[in-house]
DNA sequence: GGACAAAATTGAACGTCGTACAATTTTCTA
DNA sequence: TAGAAAATTGTACGACGTTCAATTTTGTCC
């Protein structure tokens, strides 16, 4: 059985030849999962095992020093298997971060007080993520570079952080309440905000003294009100 | 700026052990060049030769199909020499784009009618770059991915497109005339605008029907005026 | 012009990444 | 229980990018 005839990847790039995507029913802001066969379960298990093994090595020797073969060997798995689950090294980082986000975002999102309005909820949400970003600082560059280096295809369900859904939800709410301008398509706003988020993270990573929460505040201010003055010129 | 403890590379990554960066005197919006020894001249010559050879091969066989060894062979140069000038393949793309921008930006910048104000000049400028981006579409993804994958050091004089300087200039002018809010630091605004520019390009690359000029208009609108309504909620 | 230092080039060897593929094993389905 | 689908294995391979010592070119100073 050489490889596969290809369809949509479940976790990374290997196909389970499953449903041809009948417009995913789950529309929660934190995304849906894949089937629950034993096969899928075992697949997730080995994937998680690989991620755990990899990050143990990363913590011990540093990300750059650890090779894919070392990871495979430490996980007691063939190199081909590792690449089956994670086509590139950065995909391991992505998997861990998305897993952590998938666990944290629902609580975070549910905990946002509706009375704050869209702007206030965005602000509270960003401040909450700031703490996480500071903790994951070492791996953020690799994650960001990998995410941004996927301009063409990507978009494949597993390549989304969950942040996009949160933003889309909050902004759509804001538009429904008249707090956010309906002149812009919701997806444009969500994409822009997510991109400004990444940009702010990059800036923060390069700027030693910068407090991330402050940077998020400025970003959000700019996103909401722009930088044009009423008068001038 | 706190990054490089070593001197600034002349073209790519090899250091000529020269001046310890005495705050570059040239502050034109289109950047300054390096010395004009015969050595530097020849270095530039071979670099240009390599870029020309590489792009000839790219045009013939496609970017991904061309290997670094093929480029070196076609340019009649050792592999080590090629890597001396361009440490990674994408650096060839960056070099060409920056060279083209260095040639085009001064004209473009000088041709912006001051009577348009900051917003109008930004708009005119972006529309002008749209034509160029459409022409360079094939290489944009590699360029963008390479640029964004340099979060830590980078910042090294040769890793800037020139766009940042144009933005900084226009926005500083806008702030001086009261057209742009002085609440935001100028460099934050320039960075944000440049990042939104990249984001818009990525979005455009992924969206078949999208007209780049329209996308720039929306982006600029959002940048200037934000997406918050006056009233609401 | 000649000597000497700095920089560029060369060529080859090396480690790693990521791919390809055929063989084997495990799991699902009927 | 048999056969299809999918995951795993192991190996081989092309390409990237690094390293390094030897050589050549270039600039500088006497």
Structure write-up:
Two copies of one chain form a homodimer. Chain A is mainly alpha-helical and 233 residues long. Chain A has two domains: 41-87, Arc Repressor Mutant, subunit A, CATH 1.10.10.60; 89-225, Tetracycline Repressor, domain 2, CATH 1.10.357. Helices cover 59% and strands 0% of the residues of chain A. Chain A is built from nine helices and no strands. Chain A is elongated, with a radius of gyration of 20 Å. The first copy, chain A, starts with 37 loop residues before the first helix and ends in an 8-residue tail after the last helix. Chain A binds a DNA duplex (30 and 30 nucleotides) through residues 1-4, 14-17, 37-39, 42-43, 46, 67-69, 77-81, 83-84, 87-89.
Task: List the main descriptive attributes of the protein structure presented here.
233 residues; Tetracycline Repressor, domain 2; homodimer; DNA-binding; Arc Repressor Mutant, subunit A; mainly alpha; 2 domains; 9 helices; disordered N terminus; 0% strand
Mean pLDDT over the residues of chain A: 79
Distance between the termini of chain A: 70 Å
Number of helices of chain A: 9
Major sheet characteristics of chain A:
none
Taken in chain order, the helices and strands of chain A follow as: HHHHHHHHH
Q: What's the quaternary structure here?
A: homodimer
Derived from helix and strand composition plus strand pairing, the structural class of chain A reads mainly alpha
Strand segment tally of chain A:
0
CATH fold node name of the largest domain in chain A = Tetracycline Repressor, domain 2
Low-confidence stretches of chain A: 1-33
CATH C-level class of the largest domain in chain A is: Mainly Alpha
Specify Rg of chain A, calculated over alpha carbons: 20 Å
Number of domains of chain A: 2
